[in-house]
Amino acid sequence: MEGVVPDAIDHVPSSKITVVYSGGKEVEFGKELTPTEVKEQPTVSWEANPEKLYTLMMVDPDAPSRSNPIYREINHWLVVNIKGSDISTGQTITEYRGSRAPKNSGLHRYIFLVHEQPGPITVDNPDLASERRNFSSREFAKKYQLSLPSAGNYFQAQWDESVPLIR
Questions:
Q1: How far are the Cα atoms of 35, 60, 90, 94, 130 from residue 166, in angstroms, in the given order?
Q2: What pairing do the DSSP bridges indicate for beta strands 108-116 and 151-157?
Q3: Could you state, in order of their start, the residue ranges of all structural domains in the chain?
Q4: In terms of pLDDT, which residue wins out, 55 or 5?
Q5: pLDDT attached to residue 79
Q6: InterPro entries annotated for this entry (predicted)?
């Protein structure tokens, strides 16, 4: 798991999130994808109870690099109040942003996590939409009383000159 446990989560989720990018490129645990392949928002699904609400997070715990993660974590995508696994029913807090690892920073892990919610939540931090650095998936889950991650997946990516770095 490339250190995903304990860098971002405390245990391995019991099921897999299926993540598919355009062109049919599917995320497989820890495989490397290019920033170009993950530029657009993917389709995502997981085993879910259609009557329950879920939160989906995508984070990079390796910013600016795995050896010096001073901005751990970067919030790449955050959607709450998803009914079942139908993301279109959820509220997007942070718009999707694909991988944009800094030059010479090595491989970064991009982790997808799903948490079951105890009920509808109202996110009271307006800065989440603009300030992506120093996000904590653990603290977010604790604050909103989310379950431990029930599903997960991740890929790795590194610098690619064809995709500009955006801060």
A1: 12, 14, 26, 15, 12
A2: antiparallel
A3: 4-157
A4: 55
A5: 97
A6: PEBP, PEBP-like_sf, PEBP_euk
**pTM of the entire structure?**
0.93
User: For 41-54, what is each residue's pLDDT tens digit?
Assistant: 999 999 999 999 99
Beta pairing partners, 82: 54
The 43-45 sheet, strands edge to edge: 25-26, 18-21, 43-45
Class of domain 4-157: alpha beta
How far is the CA of 127 from the CAs of 101, 104, 132, 150, in angstroms? 22, 29, 8, 26
> CA 92, CA 16: separation in Å to the nearest integer?
21
- The tokens 């009383």 sit on which residue? 145
Per-residue pLDDT tens for 62-81? 999 999 999 999 999 999 99
Q: In whole angstroms, how large is the CA radius of gyration of the chain?
A: 15
